[in-house]
Amino acid sequence: MGYRIFRQQYLNCALFACINSMLAPNMVMAMETEVESADQPFQLGVIRILAEQDKSDQIASTINSTQLQQFNASTVGDGVNLLSGVTLSNNARNEKMVYVRGFDARQVPLFIDGIPVYVPYDGYIDYNRFTVADVAAIQVAKGFSSVSYGANTLGGAINLVSRKPTKAFEGYLDLGIADAGEKQTTLHVGSAHALWYMQATAAYLERDGFKLSSDFVPTATEDGGLRNNSYSKDSKLDLKLGLTPNDHDEYSLSYIKQDGEKGNPPTTGNSSIRYWQWPYWDKESLYFISNTALSAHETIKIRAYHDRYDNELDSFTDAHYSTLKTSGQGSVSTGRSIYHDRVNGASLTLESTRLTNQTISLVSHYKTDEHRELDATGAENTYFKDRIWSIALEDNIRLHPDVLLSLGLAQHTLDPEKVFSVGNPYSLPKNQTARDAQIGLFYDGIANIQLYATVAKKSRLPTLKDRYSQRLGTYIENPDLAAEKAMNYEIGHQTQLNAQLSFATALFLSNIKNKIQSVANVQEDLAQMQNIGRVQIYGTEIEFNYQPWQWLRYGGNYTYLKLENKQQNAIRITDIPQHKLINYVVIQPAEQWELQLELERNSSRWVSNVLKLDGYQILNTQIAYQPKLNSVSGQWRFAAGIQNITDKNYALADGFPSAGRMWFSKATWAF
Asked: Hey, what's the signal peptide range on this chain (predicted)?
């Protein structure tokens, strides 16, 4: 793209945002990107670009545990939705989908303390299955992201930073109930000492489902009231043990076990009706992270991990959910889809500050992805395995006390190791590589203001499902799919004018090529995934926080996002609204009391080539009471509120209406 076109699109985008800010000031409110949290983040889990540890994480948006509690966010999906540039959607599997500046979960993967946790088969993750009980902060890097994340960060990365204890004994207990039979319990305890620390978190969240708006019109598959087959149950155990033998070294071992089950509400439409349930959706993880000083200038960080993903999808004949679908000789059940996926990996980062005004990091990654499918009898009918290698270099150069130059280079290699599927004579494809490069310039020469400009060339290697899935006999496999590629540009600033006022703006542009898309009728009635897509994304984000008086806080964010299909103009890009606004006001009439109002507005969105869903506006309210701190009994906080107080009937995907008006109540004891 030429400079003139690039500049014109950005100016148009900026003009649109400025007009909105002048005509409707309530459309330019924002979450703070850096807010003190009551919970200490696990520093080994933080991914940074800047060399200085006391600086903010370049341009990544951050939301901490205090804000998650303030906005009643119980899952990661609820939490990241509070940030600019992030939009939510649902898919036909009742999974919460997250888009970051138009990039989906395969292109902006999820990490815990810098360790990838997305499902290896298709690269997706259900953000409703990840609670925030053990999360100290969520980092969302957009476009320009550290090479420490490894492969597949085409549009950025989402990193969940866990907690770390700071006292000899500390913790909290969280109890909650809500509409539709929801019950939530979290217990967290931790202990920190000179040479070691430990912590444990147990969380449980159960829902009968969610209530539909009273304006919803019943259909043949949904009678209104409690959404049919929308139940879910999630439990989580997180254990962490750390050693700190001196001021420089740290070694941490974490064990995380998640067990879940859920129903899949059927579409309210007349076609593609699925009666699905997941009797289990389980994940078990073992992580090791260490940081060791080799000398006064060199340190080495190691991340090693093992993940187990086990889930079963049962497909039934009707809404009674009692008879599995059957077909074939002897009525062999095909109604059970059983997956056993495994991930093993490690990364090594060697960091040096030996050169004056430079921090150089050499990073290597190794990861294996395994996907196994079993039939209803327990026999293995599919086994795919990939190995992914990466080598990367990051160099942060302090050109001037106020100017930092950040450079990054990476090469990723996809090495197919095993391809087996009963009845499908796959051949093992060749290796393929993808290269990333990025540059960022940061200027801090103006008091309380950071200016930046970044360019990032990123890639996403195709998943196992992209290359091999025949989608129940309707697709032709394509093992030779190449990596998607994107050029991400961004300019912006972050400003803290004074203790009362902060704001930030960003203008961004992404050009994607080799996008993996479905091509119909490649052979008779069969489709195929191919590298044919070219997409352009551009827009702006505005964030704002203002506290004119001690008793009043006002803020929010606004996102303008434009996506264009350059390859096939007639094919819509779906599930992403062009405008998104989040607004909030917090009133503190007395020292112990808080009243909060939160407004979210999304514009209309295309969900198919011919169907556009209306935009919507929802209002949430909450009142909280926090008694004065008692050093003996600890700190209590009581909160109650109503989500979607106007009972708006809206949907994020066609045939899948969202929750109507629902109340909640919580009590938290920190000790």
From this structure: 1-30
